[in-house]
Amino acid sequence: MTILERLRTLEPATMLSADDIFDAMASAGTSLADASDREDDAALEISIRLLEARRQGQIPIDCLTVVEMLAEECGLYPYVDGEKFSLFSQAVIETHAVQLDEKLYLHSKQMEILLHLLAGDNVILSAPTSFGKSMLVDAFLTYKSPNTVVMLLPTIALIDETRRRLTRRFGDRYDIITTVTDGYDSTVPTIFVLTQERFLQRKDVKKIDLLFVDEFYKLDPTRKDDRYENLNIALYRALPKSAQCFMAGPHIKNILLGDRYRGSFRFVQTDYRTVSVNIFDRSAREDKKDALLADLAGVADESSIVFTATPGSAQNLMKDFIAAKLGTDSRIGALLKTWIAENYHKSWPVGEGTEKAIAVHHGRLPRSLGQLFIQLFDRGMIKILICTSTLVEGVNTSAANVFIFDKKINHRADLDFFSFANIRGRVGRMMRHFVGRAFLYYTPPEVVETNVEIPVLSDPASSSDYILMNIENDELPPAGKTRKDQLRATTGLSIAVLKEHGALGVDNLVAANDRIKQTLRSDRALLEWKGFPNKEQRVEVAEIAVIIARARGDQFGIGSGKQVAWAWAQLQKISTLPKFLRWFERTFSPKDKAKGVDDAFRFLQACEFAFPRSLAAIEALVLMNEPLLDANYGPYVASLESWFRPAWMKQVDEAGIPLPLAERLARHLNAPADRHNALRQIAQLDIDGLGFDEIDELLIELAAEK
Known about the structure:
By secondary structure, this protein is α/β, with parallel strands linked by helices. The chain is globular.
């Protein structure tokens, strides 16, 4: 058995001997000598495992210094005490220090990337999840102080997390903008933290000093992310305005940029790790759930993430964990369980596990509630977090243990190596879990090299219809221009419609347009309205929106256009979210209340995204056919997006104030103009005596944190 194998199988109560340490140093030293730089996988793993053994008290006292020396030699400067080294080594370590809200140390590979960025290079970085990419952005902001920064992030959950971090570190120097409606003054240093969709809606960003694209692999159409086109177009529009670009993501071996951009970027692919992982393969077990329950019981109250395929399977696992008496008693969790029942719905099972420090996290959760579960998990107040693909797509957390229980994502496709590696990368965290554990219940996918193509840069003429329509003609070859013209001619859709609404799918737009032309001939009044529609007009546009939604495979919780129109009207009429949830489940799922509440959240999610996009496209198609028609759906679309509540209520939901709490807070506020004003007013409230409970106060406190 090699020393690395011994370290991998080291039991928690076993002491290492001085001979073991000598063997480890010799093995790591040989590996480092053979490496062209400090990025030797074996030496890094030996060092990390020795650091974990040191943390566990398994290193002889007289060997502690050499363990730190190896960490320093591997460039793991965050893990070492500089005062134990020579003046020369201390000087080297200090060159890796950055002063953010506190003094922090970069590891050697981080500093290499930072130096490229400080030199003005455009950088594409492929690095493991635990690499510390966010700290690179913050260090760059500290040293360079760019005036206008645009950060494109894949999820709204990441937007809020990033906003909190940046506000804490740079709030006194920068305006931090996260929405479409936030005002912008180009003379004031500003950081935009946006999804690609929100960036595309902003037309006021004329010059960018630093463009940061997180999870850049989502640009590749083969990742099957239905938002890849918007991300490509956002990159296409942002790059020409950007003095410098930094793109980051994990596990990429090669990137295809095309002739125009191939020489413009420095691509850095690294496997430099700051944590190590022990793999426990349970794929041969037939009783996989029993194995999972036993494994979870075996890690006691350590932080654990469980990956499963769908929200439904997450809920079922939570019930299994409760029945198996997993988790730990949690006073705050018991209060939270009651709070969720009172503020959402008593039959909604999401809160069932919190009293045992167990929570679920999936895409249908209200954003504020999902954020709360993550914050409680990071603070150790939630011990088991059951996640769906949100674990891959934007939950920025990690744990001592990861349990990969399912082999599919959303029951559609098997987990590929890329997604598997992303999930596995959530185990371990710098300074907290040097060595994590990953438990596998299915045979892991084969290791493959992941290549990323960015169609808007590599070959826009051959890319999707939507991307093609957004490329300027002078940047297309003759074949691309011809294809554009043919698309216009064969669909009967205008260039403006194809350019602005093509993300819905050209065939879907054609189907919607056929229905619109028929309605304009038979009863044009159904489509000729401004502001808010009457009942008949609402039913007509809802039925067209459902045509688009069904064709796209969007989930919206109910079956027909008439039902959608009815639910829109009730959402507008009913005064509070809990009352609406009760109406929805009584109306559409009286025999299965839990399913009814889940369907209600599907519907609300569609009201926030899918339906507004469709209504905007319907209006554009109506005016394409009848340019002089007096139609303006904008006010209704905006109201639907915010669930017919004041816009600030949905905005503070992103900041961590759940909508039911915002509805109760509203009576104590003076008609907030926007999220910033609302949060300021909330922070100034004297909560005592206003009838708010402990969970209300916790949510307000967390939202106010910078």
